[in-house]
Amino acid sequence: MSWHVASSNGVKDGGMVGINKRQIGDQYENMAARYLEKQGYKILARQYRSRQGEIDLVAQDGRVVVFVEVKGRQNTAFGLPQEAVDRRKQQRLWKVAQHFLWANRLQESLCRFDVVAICGKDPHTSLCHIKHAFCGF
After folding, report:
1. By the 8 A CB rule, do 73 and 119 touch?
2. Structure pTM?
């Protein structure tokens, strides 16, 4: 597992006061997608859904299909954002990833699971990219 921490460096979160959880989640996902694109990733899908659940982002890093769970918190009073990706959530993501690979005829592709954890409010937002956050089941 490897990780990278970056500050927002002027990336605005849109001021999260007075908006609902879905809008906040969308803002976190947009921040994560912009970060990944700057790192050279190609975003293949956003909010990919199947019967088993949803994956926030599906990206391509070279020849590897990367399934990305984005977690955000405005503070760490209830723990770090990445701690919310527990075993049950990991199993669900793995099932959705299998569906994505099958539906897109990518069953033979290399893949991995990353977590992008975003914490804080501007101007003190930090982003932590955890590569290989967990393995498939």
Report:
1. yes
2. 0.81
